[in-house]
Amino acid sequence: MLNSTFKIRISGRVQGVGFRPFIYNLATQYKIKGTVTNTTFGVEITAQTSAEVFRNFYDNISLQAPSSSKIEAITFTEVSEQIHFKDFQIVATNSGNPINAPLTPDFAICSDCKTEILDKNNRRFYYPFTTCTTCGPRYAITENFPFERENTSLHHFNMCPECQKEYNNPKDKRFYSQTNTCSVCGIQVWVTNANGEKLYETNPEIFPFLANQLKSGSIIALKNTSGYLLLCDATKAEVVQKLRLRKQRPVKPLAVLFPSEESLHKNVSVDDFALNELQSTVSPIVILPSKAKSDVAINEVSPINRTIGALLPYSGLLHLLCHETQIPLVATSGNVHGSPICSSEKEAEEKLKNIADFFLHHDLHIEHPQDDSVVRLTKKKRKIILRRARGLAPNFSLPSAYKEQIQSKKIVALGADLKSSIAIFPNTYLYASEYFGNLSDYDTALRFQKTIQDYFSIFKFQPEVVVKDKHPLYESGRMLEELQIDKNNIKVEEVQHHIAHFSAILTEHNLWQSQNKVLGIIWDGIGFGTEHEIWGGEFFEYQKKEFKRIQHFENFNWILGDKMSKNPKISLLSLWNGNPDEIRHLFSANEWILFEKQKEQNTLQTSSVGRLIDAVACLLGFTYEMTFEGEAAIYLESLAQKAYDIQTAKIDYLEGEDLTETILSFKIIEKVVSDSKQNISKEEIALNFHFTLVKVIEKVANFHSFKEIAYSGGVFQNALLVDLIEEELAVKFNCYFHENLSPNDENIAFGQLNYSVNINS
Ligand SMILES: [Zn+2]
Ligand SMILES: [Zn+2]
Question: What PROSITE patterns does the record point to (predicted)?
Fold first, then answer.
């Protein structure tokens, strides 16, 4: 039979996932001749064979593709080819052209590699950077694309003859593995004390030493594959307290690394849904309920509610350390309060020297440091992303129908200030960065700027449009000034905060072309609305590229700026219409005079649901200052969850009220107060409040005849609220929640960008 030549183009996540070795073996199996190579868009195959064999080969590419790959498109053409290939070869490429593909994320260590590093007879015994074509760091160490060793931090390391042999052997799992190293040729680890003095340099000694230190109460700063982690014994109250004190983090829950599945089951309630998440290649922190009898010092690890942010060892380093310690360890980002995660030895020693007793360093450069991603799961098995970072960002898979309907535009969006992020549209993909934190922190702002510049260089990109928030004083807007770009040829666009949230959820569910009008329920703590209004309890109508604010929560005084976001009692004061004497005891005499005066002179109003939640939490016992954002909301949710779990009957506090003008926030407060006076339990009141919010949505949707309801904003990090909405409304309406983005301000950049693509084109 006559041989023809075919070119196959595959796009999607096909680099750094063992795709070329897979193709090589498949082609060899079919005795096909030709080449496979990484390109700027993915992978290209030249195959010389008969049409019939080609058909089988082609079909099997999609059927048998490596588990960590994601094929988005595969096409072929027959070409006239002069060359007659003698065999099939993997051809390395470094075209220098900008990439047009997803940036392959880091993958958790696979079970085979885990087994090898604990096998005394294996040459990788106790080598913590053992990887293969399906596992190990990728994005964290990528300096450039396509994904080839010389484009990563591993280009400093030359493979030893043994590693090279594996790399060249098509039958080996490390065939053509770009991250292949071993203890002979690979990454070196060493341990220092807090003064920077080297103590140990050999792998097998290091881990027992660190394990002993951890067990005797030391705090370790460990350079993981995507940044430093601070680790300590999670079972000893005094040790966790010491970490909290040194890190200046009084109550915000700390994540816990469990040494094994067994230990996980012993300490937290974990079902298959949660276990799947924890054991996925992303391997995020999953927030789970603590068991009543737990080894973890729960009051110190998670003082405000009995949940634990659980992690399983996802890197060789963590796996070896867990193997030695066999106890749950607190594992929190290696940073000082509010700053980004440390990623270099120098930075860590400088910033963490007053926190850590010992450091585990290594000489693999981390190009793109990222925190662990954090997710929570609702009882009705919905996933809520709280922090989108390692394993997820900066990739985002747009709905394919949406991708077809939009025009590419050279655009970058600068996001919000408090949970800052970047979105960029440099090619046919859209990239949504990890969250960076609060831009008022100097180091956070620096990392934000560096990441934008990195994107510009990876994608060889000059933006034509920069999108920012409408807030005139936002730091993210000011970042524009810092960018090294030609500002004369840039169009600057502004998008209102809550419209950006709405745009994010419209995009995730491809609702821009919806035939039905869509109701946007956009609730959060704070977003610039108008000169005199801070919004946060918004109802928008979207139809045919038009947004209309159709309803909002009743305005109340926005007083004392940032103080109000931290002190629930200030929100209560602002929402209080009753006898002042009933709440006066919450304030000092001076505070009372000052706050009352502020209330009188105030000109700013807010419709924030976040602050309404704070006020209700305050009435139900949260009378102190918050130490982290959302603390009062978590308190209120966990009260309500208790009532929900015992199937308490729910009451709508706005039953029979006229909500056509505004949603009656003051009335809700009155009802909470009167129920409290009648000795109805806090838990029941909290549940009624949640239920009232759900009923508000239903009433607005009915009044304006909506069928489609989309939800975004930080308030929807509340798992109970999401479940209640699903329970009450999913039968009558189509409800859309974020699935691959966080509902909080992390999605603002993504929303801004998509607003611009759809509305300003
Ligand atoms: Zn592996
Ligand atoms: Zn080697």
Answer: ACYLPHOSPHATASE_1, ACYLPHOSPHATASE_3, YRDC
